[in-house]
């Protein structure tokens, strides 16, 4: 593993590291914030999955998350959103290929060779992190924005017991019924829609729910509401009788100004769940 | 004035606006955060001057300042760092020309035509802001990072009574004795070093000091310490018996991870001064 940079930040260290991913068949870069406490003992960790077009860097520099993670003694992981590099399949569209992994294991060419973001985030990267840094494997939580909110919710529901809590900012909540989902699932997973349900938070909510704490924030002035379909997730949560909170925030859009406005509350929420 | 964007942010609005600058002879873009209070009455304003290579956008997206400004009911102004555009003189170096205005009025060609950042920040932009937004002209404070810290300190000391308080993150503290200064002052102001002293915070401190509250933060692991010369400013502050605080922060570098780590304390500091 290669250290790209390490910056002092709120008494801890904001690092950026690169490693060879066997699962994805390329080098991958991730950000990791370690609070001061990590110098003395392992700390709990909050995963932050990013949205379309993002790299490891967007949330790391724009969400204002480190202040709150430092206050609560949490580590933050900022993975990239897809495999990367010249040898990795791509598409001219911003919402397919590099920067748009959608947190699935692709089964269709040309994507199947590298696009295994589900396994990367749920298996390989956790092993890299737990082996290399002072993190508590049994105290993990997950959040994400947009496509990353979809990833966070899908993983939290598919891997019961892994995450104490899950939250999301403006998640792609019902991708099997949206152009942010149908296009990508067709490309990555094929036309058989039966394989898609495992990656749709609203369907997963109806079928499995989540045993743990759950918080959703959605901006009421989000320019992508038709693609995100928050109403499907809100309906599913209520129909499931899922304990948790769904908040529609008046005036907020899809930007990091929205994320940063509420990241403090999300991190406090996860810290409380991780302290149980 | 043209509205480029307005995003809900911490209960207020983060706006980006463009206007035709008569002083600079080009269109200029600035960011303005207005807290919720500005919907009901004018609010005090904190200027944030940015560093080399920055635009209006860097601090606006990476400093995490809005959370604290909202908590204290302050507006934040994020100006650009130089005139811009195809018709504006430039240089291939990152530290001269566009992105590197150094907050002076250039008197030498080819810079004199557009590079009048002193007048823009101290005269034209304030008039634009006071005419267009709910801001209190008699409650202003100023801060900045690196080249912007130099600008903030220079303006605060040259314009007594304008700013209730001044702070800086890793300011270029002694440009007349640094390659971050001598090169640019030679280009913009000419070889006569007598004209440079009005733009050197350490010299201004010795000569004028600042009547108001003053706070300096400098990272001890800053990669540009030799160019910033914080020791000159610390010496001048002590020699002047200037009331204020100079903090050397162990481990921190020159990045926005440093700025964001302490921006909350700076904004609280300015809010307290503005409440006097």
UniProtKB/TrEMBL annotation, chains A, B:
Domain of life: Bacteria
Catalytic activity line of the entry: S-formylglutathione + H2O = formate + glutathione + H(+)
Keyword tags: Hydrolase, Serine esterase
Enzyme kind, highest EC tier: hydrolase
Its biological purpose: Serine hydrolase involved in the detoxification of formaldehyde.
Organism: Roseinatronobacter alkalisoli
Gene: fghA
Stretches that traverse the bilayer: none
Name this polypeptide is given: S-formylglutathione hydrolase
Protein family membership: Belongs to the esterase D family.
InterPro entries named among the record's database cross-references: AB_hydrolase_fold (IPR029058), Esterase-like (IPR000801), S-formylglutathione_hydrol (IPR014186)
EC code(s) of this entry: 3.1.2.12
Lineage summary: Bacteria, Pseudomonadati, Pseudomonadota, Alphaproteobacteria, Rhodobacterales
Any one GO molecular-function label of the UniProt entry: S-formylglutathione hydrolase activity
